[in-house]
Amino acid sequence: MIKANDSNRKSWIEVSKDSDFPIQNIPFGVFKKSDNNICVGTRIGDRAIDLNALQKLNYFAGIALGPEIFNKETLNDLLKLNKPVWRAVRDRIAEIFDANNEMDETHKGLVLSMIEEVEMMMPVSVGDYTDFYSSRQHAYNVGCMFRDPNNALLPNWLHIPVGYHGRASSIVLSGTNIHRPKGQQLPVDAEMPVFGPCKLMDFELEMAFVTGQGKELGNHISTAEADDYIFGMCIFNDWSARDIQKWEYVPLGPFLGKNFASSISPWIVTLDALEPFRVEGEKQEPAVLPYLEFKGNKNIDIKLEVQIASDHFEPHTISRSNYKYMYWNMTQQLAHHTVNGCNINAGDLMASGTISGNTPDAYGSMLELSWKGTKPITMPDGSERKFLQDNDSLIMKAHCQADHYRIGFGKVRTKILPAKKLNI
Amino acid sequence: MIKANDSNRKSWIEVSKDSDFPIQNIPFGVFKKSDNNICVGTRIGDRAIDLNALQKLNYFAGIALGPEIFNKETLNDLLKLNKPVWRAVRDRIAEIFDANNEMDETHKGLVLSMIEEVEMMMPVSVGDYTDFYSSRQHAYNVGCMFRDPNNALLPNWLHIPVGYHGRASSIVLSGTNIHRPKGQQLPVDAEMPVFGPCKLMDFELEMAFVTGQGKELGNHISTAEADDYIFGMCIFNDWSARDIQKWEYVPLGPFLGKNFASSISPWIVTLDALEPFRVEGEKQEPAVLPYLEFKGNKNIDIKLEVQIASDHFEPHTISRSNYKYMYWNMTQQLAHHTVNGCNINAGDLMASGTISGNTPDAYGSMLELSWKGTKPITMPDGSERKFLQDNDSLIMKAHCQADHYRIGFGKVRTKILPAKKLNI
């Protein structure tokens, strides 16, 4: 039904079998070209495709886009349109680059760049950012470590897709290095807090979705409507300073332990491109309240991988998880978020919460992988990690596997720089 | 030193003695004129002043403003400039409208409107919104009600200006009516939650400040620098659905209990205009960590008043509090918020948290005023309030009192409409 998902389609652009970006993907992003022009674009194989150039050449005739929609520094104006338009654009791109069609050489020169020649930019100006807490194994692990293994899940967890508001301003693109944060921590057995660089620097393996324009304040989006308001997804690293977080978070939740940075991958993969990979989620017991009921398969089989790299060793895999492990799905998250009348805007971002699988090699944070530092992880150079060290790079990758191709997200890679000096 | 604060200055625009807007105020806002043009403006007495018209008439010559800075639908572009420019604009406005100067009648026609003839608009497109929890009496009251009167303050409260991220999209202007939110609640002694309209609808009396453009991610703003990054303040009503909040907030903080709406007053009163009303805050013991130390008087004497009105009675005062009661001041809040490297942008909004004074008639929420519903408040028509009812209007007012004039914020007034039906 979604034409661009035709699994038999091939492109006249060469695509290697292990590429994240076959013609069935067609993600959306923003990049700066070698002439310094910034445009909204997509990618097939190793070619970056300038959608603004395509529109100027009249390739999108008949689609209700309005002028200059791709001559932008973010996807936000595109996000303000709606799913039928997003779908028409993606279907048209699939047509244009279909192996059965051809493109004039002059047009190719205007439209195509080698991916190495463009600089990826933040794809979205994020309005509001919400982080959920929707992996049962993660919530269970945290409950075991900090509370009671016999009552690891808090009373509301099986009834509510628990979430909280995060900081939008500090969401940065893959490749943006971050400094180790500083803050208050309460040393073990101490009565007074101290101030200094975070000692328990952690990542959280998450996926995020980007929204289109919602309804007016006071209205809600049902689970049946939710998919229409979700444009697509990216990989999300919810950086966490565990010592800062632990001291500050009661009673109002995470603040400085999280808001120093979050990192995203540059390409937004459409929800449409992910449709073939829908799977059933875990049965929810006790039954959820009616506004959280949903129809159909709403989980997605997205294979996730986390690696650490450093100056001393190549990327080393420390976790393999999967987005299908989510207890609460996106339609439930969005329905819950708006059921009180809260409005959403084009360009809001909602992250899943740490995605931990059911085995220790599938946990989605150092906190869980090293079990609070009690089980250090050995690196290829023989060094150990309980948490992340300065100059470590953290890499997350994600893809859906079909028989003959994969729909991938690329990666988010971030290096941790030493803490900056405090000037007071 | 700040010329516009000259207490002897009078304007050629008539200003009644009890006006919130003498020539010493000069707040900034956005309004739609009778010709439907929207502009950035200010107010003296009952006159709305079109700053875009003033700029076109060359009144701001010599100030580094750039063109069309007031031909905008928000203050955000002005906020991206800096304090010397903001101050120069305010000083110039004080000159233009000084009783010793005159204005051409044609210019008056272009620049001035009666305040009733303009429609106030949201002054700021809020990027990120943070809510603090900085009134000791409020934190103590909540601790007494929900925890233990002997250990009412949590261990971190005297060390950290506790805060959390809120929802920016649902901040609305005074006069925007809101619907009672719906959501999950756990009835007393029940094991399973139910869904329905909030039964414990509450306000929170707060003040908020609006920021200018901060530093790059990874840098911090010290207490000594903080005032330079604060443009001004407004009244803030942090609507709270107590029953929804109670069930959801452990462990990640308030979410749907707060994000259905927050209401602000339309005029941003500059920090400069508030300087004459600085007072010393409560002594902080134990001593704060060095990055939270500050010099000078950083609290402000702003008199606050809360009223309920309905179809059956005129506005009835239920609380009188004061912004000077804050334990943590704005410079500490901003220094704390950024000490981990979190960046702020022009147009971020940071609210104080509920401002409760030390006596029961100075508490800043129904939760505290009715002490969890155990001490209902009697209205002029004989009806009682434990929490707010449908069709109640909630009014907050704020002003600083000088000998011969007051610097006021106007008011924020919001009517609560019945819950909307859920369509699923």
Q: Layout of helices and strands, plus pairs?
A:
The structure is a homodimer of 424-residue chains.
Chain A: E1 29-32, E2 38-44, E3 47-50, H1 51-56, H2 76-79, H3 83-96, H4 105-111, E4 112-114, E5 119-121, E6 129-132, H5 136-146, E7 163-166, E8 171-173, E9 178-179, E10 182-185, E11 194-197, E12 201-202, E13 205-211, H6 223-226, E14 230-237, E15 240-241, H7 242-248, E16 262-264, E17 269-270, H8 271-274, E18 278-279, E19 299-300, E20 303-310, E21 313-322, H9 330-338, E22 349-351, H10 366-369, E23 377-378, E24 384-385, E25 393-401, E26 406-417
Search tags:
homodimer; 424 residues; alpha+beta; SH3 type barrels; Fumarylacetoacetate hydrolase, domain 2; eight-stranded mixed β-sheet; five-stranded antiparallel β-sheet; 10 helices; 27% strand
What do these coordinates show?
The first copy, chain A, has helices at 51-56, 76-79, 83-96, 105-111, 136-146, 223-226, 242-248, 271-274, 330-338, 366-369; strands at residues 29-32, 38-44, 47-50, 112-114, 119-121, 129-132, 163-166, 171-173, 178-179, 182-185, 194-197, 201-202, 205-211, 230-237, 240-241, 262-264, 269-270, 278-279, 299-300, 303-310, 313-322, 349-351, 377-378, 384-385, 393-401, 406-417. Chain A is of the alpha+beta class and 424 residues long. The first copy, chain A, folds into 2 domains: 29-120, SH3 type barrels (Roll), CATH 2.30.30.230; 129-417, Fumarylacetoacetate hydrolase, domain 2 (Alpha-Beta Complex). In chain A, β23 and β24 (384-385) form a beta hairpin. Chains A and B meet through β7, β9, β10 and α7 of A and β7, β9, β10 and α7 of B.
